[in-house]
Amino acid sequence: MGSVVGHSECYYIYDANGRKKVVDGKEYLITEEEYRRENPYHKDVGCTECSFVQDNETLFTYLVPREMKERATGDPEFVGKFTLPGYTGHFSFYVFKCPFCMKVSVSSISSVRRLWCTHCGDYYRLDPIRHRSIITRDREVSDEVLKYYTDKDKEERRRKQRSYLFGLFLVFGIVTTLFLI
Predict the structure, then answer these.
(1) Mean pLDDT over residues 55-67, rounded?
(2) Rg (CA), the chain
(3) pLDDT surpasses 60 at 1
C-alpha cells in the first residue's frame, strides 16, 4: 500500500483484542461506532446505483423477472447492482444456469471469476476471454491477471486431456492383455 501526499496510509485489523485502526504503522484501538462512522454499511449511504435486498433468495424470487429465469443459460446475464446486510459496497448480480445441477441461480462474482450456485453450492468459473466484460464490470482487473487465468485454464485443459488419454491407453492395454491371455 502506498500513501498519497497529504494522506496517511490506513487499514483495519479485527482480532480477539478488538478492532484497531493502523495509521502509518501505528495501531489505535477504535470502537465499533468509530469504525462504522468511517466505513458505513452500504445500505445507509444513499447509493442510487443499487438496491438493498435481504438475501440471494429474496433477490431471485422477487427481483429477477420470470422471463430472465426462463431464458437463463450457461452464459450469465446481468440482473442489477445490489447490496446485502453487512455489505460496505454493492455488487453486480447475474442469473445463470448452473452447469452441475442445471438449476437457475443468481449470484455476484467472487474470487475474480466465480459465480456460486445457491442450489448445489458449486461454482461456475467465468472464462477470462469470453466473460471479460462481466469480470471487469465492478473492479479493475489487469490484463496480466486475465492472462494468468487464461493460461491457467489452458494448462488445466491440457492436464485433463493428458489424464484422459492416459486412461484410454491404460484401458486399451488391459483389454489387449486380457484378450491375449
Answers:
(1) 93
(2) 23
(3) no
Residue recorded with cell 447509493 = 47
72: Cβ contacts below 8 Å, ≥ 6 apart: 95, 96, 97, 104
123, 127, 130, 136: CA torsion to nearest 10: 80
Task: Note whether 109 and 87 are same-domain residues.
Answer: yes
The C-alpha cell at 105 is 441461480
pTM given for the model = 0.66
Q: Which single residue is written with the C-alpha cell 502506498?
A: 2
Whether 179 and 97 map to the same domain: the answer is: no
Interatomic CA distance for residues 40 and 60, integer angstroms:
26
If asked whether residues 131 and 64 sit together in one domain, one would say yes
Give how many domains the chain has, as a whole number: 3
The SS3 assignment for 91 reads strand
pLDDT tier for residue 2 given thresholds of 50, 70 and 90: very low
Checking phi first, is residue 86 left (phi over 0); if not, alpha (psi -120 to 50) or beta?
left
- pLDDT, residue 163, reads 73
pLDDT tens-digit readout, 72-93: 988 999 999 998 888 878 889 9
**Is 155 found in the same domain as 126?**
no
